[in-house]
Design a protein that fits this description.
- The structure is a homotetramer.
- Chain A is an all-alpha fold and about 210 residues long.
- Chain A has two domains: about 45 residues, Arc Repressor Mutant, subunit A; about 150 residues, Tetracycline Repressor, domain 2, CATH 1.10.357.10.
- The first copy, chain A, is about 70% helix and about 0% strand.
- In chain A, helix 5 packs antiparallel against helix 8.
- Chain A is elongated and about 65 Å long.
- Chains A and B meet through helix 8, helix 9 and helix 10 of A and helix 8, helix 9 and helix 10 of B.
- The structure holds a DNA duplex (21 and 21 nucleotides).
Chain lengths: ~210, ~210, ~210, ~210
DNA sequence: GATGAATGAGATTTCATTCAT
DNA sequence: TATGAATGAAATCTCATTCAT
């Protein structure tokens, strides 16, 4: 029954466990994911889990911090790149595969639940409070570059971001791919209207 | 010691239990609410709960159906009222106290969780699929009445609805009342831009 | 496997569980007694245990309070009986079978452990702080009745009580019955010396 | 990150671990002290602990044997010193700082617990069986020297020893310093009465 | 209709111990 | 000698659900 004891570098092991947990959290939610299922997926013993994480909550907190840091770092790195135009930055930030890896809406939902209230702060900061202002900055740059006519307020940015995330990325709705395309097209149009851009300036939004 | 057995009309009893559950679900989430706490709040015995509801899930399903029906009925009643202009209808639908009672974003969140997957359909129908198209209809009426210049697509409506709900009504963010006002103002402006309305046509959006 | 569900009066059930726990606590100590073993001895399911007691600690606390109350009540009842002489009271208090049932040195030891620190107060009150003063009172009565020549201070009483309890009743030593007799004889002599009584006035101390 | 591997003389290392364990056992009890906490206090790795001690029990056994040997050696060395009078010996044995270091009531309590039954014998020998008889011998010497009138039986000695230890040195009671003084005074008086000594012959008992 | 005692599967967590390096 | 990652049995506790009354 018992497999041989395999020793790995702590960082590797910890990452493996985190990955296993992440997958399960996304699939079944935090509460419905048992530590038992995590260790089975990770191929470790119960004790190993608790060697790396103090509690089940702890692994969630880890996950969040990781994502938060990743996201912010990535966004800032793009924004501070002086070689890029506003449009180029938006492309990178909104639809690039790099971003896909970092943002993690389902984990956000987990965290937002009242029983994880202590972790909310963290998320307030990233998703809406950090990312949206950073995006608003890029739109400002766009206005300077003459590609947008309006100033986009941080609040508008937050509303748009939240809306698209909830409708498109939350996984709560099961849209057909046509419906999805329609949504992205409308999102593009809305954003162009709000920013005062010429039609199709932001066409990359709707091309997945 | 033991409380007297109190016999009530089944419908009354059932409603009482449902109300107790609703309050707790909103406050602590579905998973974190124990049947024990529900019966305590409702002032009944364990067995009584299971006399009225097959399972814990069952009471949630009940709650959803109830809300869904209430909401849809209310929206349709307003929309079908031929005496009202588009603006009047929007006022009633978006900011009236009657609506406040019926829409229930926290229950929606409960339901949307993966472990309650069977209940999602229901909510897809109401929140985004039913309400948004109904609102889009009213905007269409508004265009006919000459108060809006653009057609507002169902999808835009859904994005705006989702965004405002998530940011403002989810209870996940703790905005100051000024920030809240700023959001509502921006929401108003965004909606006016999208609908192609004159500034302040939809001022009621930002007057709580 | 599963036996039929047997429903009993809560008081009866609670007492049964308490008794089972008491026996195991005495035999193996508090820490070494698992809830599992308690429920097996009591013939109940895990849940039933936690239906009656919030935690494992809780049943210990219960036990203590029970003993404390019993003991004090009994001692006071004897002391306030005006028909009895000091000697008669001491007989009743020190060696009667009624007392045997109430005092419970092994539970006292459990409680005195540092990890149960919160429960110590309780015991300070009974064993040393309550009982010893009550006994000292009886010795005072004895002096008035002319059977003792010395006043016995509360502190002396406490030291004697503690010593005899630790050596004889703690169960930590495994004395032969002769050794035990010798101890009781010496305890008798010591007490007589301290109280200033004629030899064998307190002979009942050494006659089990 | 990882601390350098420090190599020490085995005896030194073993002593360090033993000391760490002793402190923790006294503070929190044997069961409540984890091997983890011991290695942390000792600044070593898990494996190192198990290199020096077979099991957790093993370190306790070590501790006991050490204490037992120390104590007995010390007592005998004092008793066999022909230059000292009985009173001088008692002074050394009962209240000297050397003794303080060697006797160890809290470890005794640990050991006396039922789950450590195998270790009890050891302690029966020291605390009550070895020390008390040795003290009784000194009282005998005192009688020969004319300073005591009565023979003090081993059993009386054991009762007094146990009582004073339990009440005063167990740490289970939190006496004020006045109460403590009162106890010592009464202990002195009791002992003098039992030994048949003139008042204040044993005054050193009550002078800490 | 209503009660609440009883259930038991399963969840989280602890910790003494092992073993590959 | 020394390390610390890995183990897994066992402990405590939760809670939706059942059922005799």
């Amino acid at each position: 029954m018992s497999t041989k004891r395999v020793i790995k570098h702590p960082d590797v092991r910890k990452l493996e466990i985190t990955r296993a947990a992440e997958i399960l959290f996304r699939k079944k939610g935090y509460a419905a994911t048992s530590v038992e299922s995590i260790i089975q997926k990770a191929g470790i013993a119960k004790g190993t889990f608790y060697y790396y994480f103090k509690t089940k909550q702890d692994i969630l907190k880890n996950l969040v911090e990781q994502i938060a840091t990743n996201m912010e770092t990535y966004f800032i790195s793009v924004i501070e790149d002086n070689h890029l135009s506003a449009i180029q930055k938006l492309k990178k930030l909104l639809r690039s595969p790099e971003k896909k890896e970092k943002i993690n809406p389902s984990v956000m939902k987990i965290i937002h639940r009242p029983e994880n209230r202590e972790l909310q702060e963290e998320l307030n900061i990233i998703a809406i409070k950090v990312i949206a202002p950073l995006l608003a900055k890029v739109f400002q740059q766009g206005k300077k570059e003459g590609v947008f006519n309006n100033t986009v307020s941080v609040e508008s940015m937050q509303l748009i971001l939240a809306g698209s995330q909830f409708v498109l990325d939350s996984g709560l709705f099961h849209w057909s791919s046509e419906q999805r395309k329609k949504f992205l097209k409308e999102l593009q149009r809305m954003t162009e209207q709000i920013a005062g851009a010429k039609p199709n300036t932001l066409s990359f939004i709707s091309s997945e």
